[in-house]
Request: fold
Amino acid sequence: MSLPINLHFDGRLALIVGGGSVAYRKAAALAQAGARLRVVSPAFVPELQEFLTLRDDESHRRVYETADLDRVALAIAATDDDAVNRQVVEDARAQSVLCCDAVDPQRGDFSMPAVVRFDTLTFGIDTGAAAPAFSKRIAEELREHFGDGYGPAARTLGGMRDYVKTVLPPAERSAVLRVLAAMPVQMLAKLNPGDAEHEVDTMIERLRGTEPVPSTTAAICASRASALAMTQSRIVAAKLARSGIASTILNITTTGDRIVDRPLAAIGAESLFVKELELALRDRRADYAVHSCKDLPSELSADMQLVAISTREDPRDAFCSERYTDFWTLPAGARVGTSSLRRRAQLSGLRSDLIYDDIRGNVDTRLHKLRDGKYDAIVLAMAGLLRLGVRATNTVAFSTDQLIPAVAQGALAVEMRVEESSLTQTLREAINDSASELAVICERTALRELRGGCQAPIGIHAHFEDDILYVRGIVCSLDGAQLVSETRQAPVAAIGAAQALGTAIALALLASGAGAILNGAPGGE
Reply:
């Protein structure tokens, strides 16, 4: 028995041993799935050589060596030499690498079915290697039967599903999704995102009866438009939907999103990813806003309040590289991309022999720049990678002792106007995590006492062990040559105690010389 699965390579490396037509077909399929390729063979058929050259993948004209398996996610043996194929399979298993023997599928760990794709819709055809010609026939019949509309229809339904999860509590979702999936394919294929959301709203009203959804059960969420920001806003909106309040997400482009040709430190402003969302709240275009909490200034405007802090995702920073296994294996002079002065300062303190360059763009853009070879490594927030479900070939989290995170890194913050509102308490009950809130309040208090912005070279991280809150802070010069670090701990069960501990760590850092370092360092997270 076998188990069909879909692999998302996200730029990870795949090895193909062989240079013939079979190897070419496997290479094309893996490339389409997002893999980078390493192909090894004494000779290549012309179409495979051209394919590899156009993609700038690895190609080695020689016999297979065991070292070819280094850093690969999976391997394929596709030569006409049975002994070589057998050796590749044995070596791969010895290194815990899944391997496919394209000539003898029973010998390998997996087989690759014939694939027919219509946009995001994928069919896999596997006859157990008993009848490859029959697989080809089925593929042709699928192409004849399923027109071009099926792929866009599947993509539209995916967007509808995300919207349903945002606006409906769990108990009401399945009935709506079943009806939406039964809509005519060509109708689904032609819907734009706005019309698709309207269809969902109409279907909800129809299934609930003739009465439209009462306006008191709706709220508008202000969010940045990036994939990560939208994912984070939908996390909050989905939790709020369980309390019976549906959310419409208002996409807003912030100053930090618009200016992408300069380092953040050079822009010279606080609240780069915040102020436009706050304006939407003030103008009553939105009822609440969702932020990456680390983007918030240490003090909010008097008319704004934080009503909830989400359960914290992994707060650590992550080393990401396509070529090198971890930060310590980077060669001297390697280029490391980071948009954060905090990260740059601490990394410079760990390794001053590397070149630290600015990198801008959303998470996907930065990972693409890494895969294109513009950087040897980049450093990103682990929380964003986990929420998006993406990674580099080598993704290794720094411990919080090696690299102290930014204040509130990994937490989501819900911001509202300062006013009486039933939504305020509902949001807090649906979203707020007490332990995360106390840790974040401690960190933000310390940042405020240090008079540091969200973009200063300051790292502060608090975490609970039982009822004790431990906090560590660090302030660095930009070159990492000067730094002060302090730790404090205290039993914390209320906001006042969290604030007191934050003040204590800040005063300890200032007493150790943090003020002098900060006076010489511009902001720029």
Q: What stands out?
A: The longest strand covers residues 468-476.
